[in-house]
Amino acid sequence: MRGREIFHRVRPILRFLSWILRQFPRSVRYALLALFRCTPGPLGLGIRYFCVHSLARSCGDNVYIGPYTFLSYLELCDIGSNVSIREFCSIGCRGGLRIGNDVMLAAGTVLLTEEHDYTQSNVPMRDALPELKKTVVEDGVWVGARVCITAGITVGGGAVIGAGAVVTHDIPPFSIAAGVPARIIGWRPGHEPQQS
Questions:
Q1: Which keywords does this chain's UniProt record carry (predicted)?
Q2: Has residue 196 been placed in a domain?
């Protein structure tokens, strides 16, 4: 049985637990998420899901949040349905984050929504005010292992990001990008740009 079929069977329970959890302060919900961050198996997966569902601005169905994943500022995050966030991901949503439907984030992915303003040379970097920038991962994107997507980037729908890439510019829909910094190395079949 596929994960989404199992999810639909237990969905009413998870939604009810999420509703109960919303009655508690946000700090309690984050503490529960942290407490079960490393718990393996269906129990850990279920608890992480209903914690994230109660914290996020919006969260769809069948969202897999792997063990050892760190999530912050979820109240500024929108997550679609059928999303897989594998183990050891680090996702900060302070600048705003939208993850579309049918997105796969492989192990060790880093999604950033803020960065330090290095132009403030009159203060130490650690004291420089952060720049908040919304990051968007559109529907159907596959992000390979250990990819870093920097703040303010939009990864277009259906795009593929190769393992280990550092994404510093917007990625067009249905493109294949890889490298440091990431660059377009190809297109998914049937989506090649028209030659003029």
A1: Acyltransferase, Repeat, Transferase
A2: no
Q: What's the pLDDT at 116?
A: 85
* Structural domain count of the chain: 1
The answer to the question of residue 96 being in a domain is: yes
Supply the range of the domain harboring residue 67: 3-187
Q: How far apart are CA 9 and CA 3, in angstroms?
A: 10
Q: Residue 115 maps to which CATH number? A: 2.160.10.10
Per-residue pLDDT tens digits for 28-39 = 999 999 999 999
Q: Quote the strand ranges of 97-165, DSSP E.
A: 97-99, 104-105, 110-111, 114-116, 130-132, 135-137, 142-143, 148-149, 154-155, 160-161
C-alpha–C-alpha distance, residues 142 and 159, integer Å: 7
Unique residue bearing structure tokens 């040379």:
121
Q: The tokens of 190 are what?
A: 């049937």
- Give this prediction's pTM: 0.91
What b/e sequence results for 54-66 when a residue is b if at least 16 CB atoms lie within 10 Å of its CB, and e otherwise? bbbeebbbbbbbb
Residues in the chain: 196
Q: Going by DSSP bridges, is the β-strand pair 175-178/183-187 parallel, antiparallel, or unpaired?
A: antiparallel
Q: How far is the C-alpha of 50 from the C-alpha of 67, rounded, in Å?
A: 14
